[in-house]
Write a structure and sequence with these properties.
CATH topology of the largest domain: Spore Coat Polysaccharide Biosynthesis Protein SpsA, Chain A
CATH architecture of the largest domain: Alpha-Beta Complex
Number of helices: 14
Strand content: 15-25%
Structural class: alpha/beta
Number of strands: 9
Order of helices and strands: EHEHEHEEHEHHHEHHEHEHHHH
Number of domains: 2
Strand order of the largest sheet: 3-2-1-4-7-6-8
CATH class of the largest domain: Alpha Beta
């Protein structure tokens, strides 16, 4: 384990063929991050214009991952990329940030790391699922939530665990020393239907560490999450229906074509 630099964070962004979103994500990080930090981008074997763009940026550390056939795409690839960056992390905090998560307020990182002060057993602070739907749709979904019903009907701990809340890797900070010391991983657990970060969250709790969730309504004040953007950008590869892709892309296009996005792109140093 490294001698970690205290009072500093490593922000890790994973890129896979998402040039426009990754550019916006990095521009926002550069504009709105005040807390001492470094930025690591792990490219998951994109072999496209997004990789060429990343190679041109002097203020990031770029890791070009060469995946095996078993972890080339999807959750396995994302978890392996985060693990690769974590293994090289030399700062007190490790921050996972999706390439379609756009920070929008100064001191966003302080909002996360301040919770670690005076809490040595606190291992993770971050967000769960951040909904982008209108409130009425969320209420309707809650009233007709099949997953909630299945939660009640589940008979075994393993089945119940599938539906438990967990802190996701959308925008979350981890105490690096704990993850490295415990040998924990962001990897998926397909046997138990655990996605990226889910097994890690439960492993931390099972070992007696604390994890602090940030309510979605609070997180939305300083980040915007353009859900499923990377998958939609590679719809054919991930088997997404064009109807779903079109719905998400309309929202993404509005964000990317906004004056705010233009302002951020203009501030990128390349």
């Amino acid at each position: 384990m490294w001698n970690l630099v205290e009072g500093k964070a490593t922000i890790c962004v994973v890129n896979y063929r998402a040039l426009a979103l990754t550019r916006l994500c990095l521009a926002a990080i550069q504009k709105f991050t005040v807390y001492p930090h470094e930025v690591v981008v792990v490219d998951n074997d994109s072999r496209d214009a997004s990789l060429e763009y990343l190679r041109s940026i002097p203020w990031i550390k770029l890791i070009e991952r060469r995946p095996s056939p078993l972890d080339r795409t999807g959750g396995r690839a994302h978890g392996a990329a985060l693990d690769l960056a974590l293994a090289q992390c030399q700062t007190e905090f490790f921050v996972s940030l999706h390439s379609d998560t756009i920070v929008s307020q100064k001191h966003w990182l302080e909002h996360l790391v301040r919770h670690f002060e005076g809490a040595p057993r606190l291992a993770c602070v971050g967000t769960g699922k951040i909904e982008t739907k209108p409130k009425w749709q969320l209420l309707l979904k809650r009233a007709t939530d099949l997953r909630a019903l299945l939660r009640v009907l589940a008979n075994t701990p393993e089945e119940r665990a599938r539906f438990r809340y967990f802190i996701r890797t959308i925008c979350s900070a981890y105490r690096t020393a704990i993850l490295q010391r415990e040998g924990l991983s962001f990897g998926v657990d397909e046997a138990r239907h655990y996605t990226v970060g889910q097994k890690l969250y439960f492993d931390l709790l099972d070992r007696g560490y604390e994890c602090m969730p940030i309510p979605a309504r609070q997180a939305r004040r300083w980040i915007a999450h353009l859900a499923h953007a990377t998958v939609n950008a590679n719809a054919e590869e991930f088997g997404r229906s064009m109807k779903i892709v079109a719905k998400h892309r309309r929202r993404h296009v509005r964000a990317l074509s906004s004056a705010r996005a233009d302002e951020l792109f203009g501030d990128v140093i390349s």
